[in-house]
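Appendix C reproduces, verbatim, an entry submitted by the partner laboratory led by Prof. M.T., so that reviewers can inspect both the input and the predicted structure.
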Amino acid sequence: MSPRGVRPKGFAPSGFLLGREPSMGQKVRPTGFRTGIMLDWQSTWYANKQDFADLLVEDQKIRAFIKKKYGKAGISRVRIERTRERVVVYIFSARVGMVIGKKGQEVEKLTKDLEDLTHRHIEVKTMEVNRPEIDAQLVAQDIGEQLEKRQSFRRTMKRAIDQTMEGGAKGIKLQLSGRLGGAEMARVEKAMEGSIPLSTLRANIDYGFAEAATAQGNIGIKVWINNGDFLDSQEVGNAPDAQAGKISKKSAGKSKR
């Protein structure tokens, strides 16, 4: 028995060995970090314990099927809503015409394919992404397409950063991983402009990931884009100006009345 207050040799609190620093990852996907606080879920439905796993896998199959079939249609995200009678699939795309097809033939075909896949009544709705240059997923896909065409990765990164900042973003960060430029050894290249406050929950940080299938191997592309503040809207009124102490006399007069 060891004396009271004296720990045995090699023992440390929390189960760590002495002489070793505990290591822990600090990176969190920004969209998942804000889901339920500032962002809504991408799948909106309720299920009991028996059905939950099956419906979750079904959602994943629907998304994988759509992205595989319309990989070049600039699909940003797929949102799914379920009721007891039907499943509504919202496809957010930069090139809606490719999804709809001539006289809506593509949508009808897609609806039938999804019904065969899930054995449920499916309704497909297409939503256009008006500003693809500030959508992180679309920026990542665009970089991937350029790399597959053997474009220089540095030139591609610089072009993406310039387009996004000109589009009105507050900041952008890019990370490319793999055999860049056909190098023998894989490496990671990063580029950043503006501010990316990942820990600020009210900051509207968009995240996108894509892979470029090159002759030398796959290159992973991660994109973070800061689209400003969730609270910078008409409902908030003068909150941002109040914090900076710059409320105009006109708006201040209105509030007094």
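Residues 10-18, 234-257 have pLDDT under 50 and may be disordered. Additional entries are available on request from the coordinating office.
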